[in-house]
Structure formats: structure tokens, C-alpha cells
Amino acid sequence: MKSSTCPTCKTSVKRDPAHPPKLFPFCSERCHLVDLGRWLGEEYRIPGDPSIEAVEAAAAACGIRDDD
To answer: Which position has the higher pLDDT, 16 or 7?
Structure first.
């Protein structure tokens, strides 16, 4: 059996290949939903370039105008 740690509560989770849990690597549905809520609440972020809208909003907040 493969062992892992629940990303939410850090308890040990054992993975049985004969009966794969649908929520792996989470130990419970609660921990799965807590993690989903964090993604939906934008607590987790994937690094990348800022969107054009974010750059324009930041420029507008600083009073910078783009006069082309």
C-alpha cells in the first residue's frame, strides 16, 4: 500500500490499489471540500503573468493613463 499525507489536515492516508478511494489524497470528503473552498476563494494561486485587466486596473489605481 502507498501512503500519503492529506494536504488539508496532514493525517496519514493509505492508498489501496485494489480499492482506490475517489477522494485520494484527501482523508475525507470534508478535507476535500475545504481544499476546494480554498481554490474557489482564490487562496491558492498558480504563478504566471498578470492578465491585461489586472495591469490596467493597477495602472488606473495609480493614476497612470495609457494615451496612445
So the answer is: 7
pLDDT score recorded for residue 5: 93
Residue 67 lies in a domain: no
Residue-number span of the structural domain to which 33 is assigned: 2-61
- Is 26 part of any domain? yes
Cβ atoms of 9 and 31 within 8 Å: the answer is yes
Question: How far is 42 from 7, CA to CA, in rounded Å?
Answer: 17
Q: Which value, to the nearest 10 degrees, does the dihedral of the CA atoms of residues 56, 59, 65, 66 take?
A: -50
Tell me: pLDDT of 68 over 60: no
Query: Is residue 66 situated within a structural domain?
Result: no
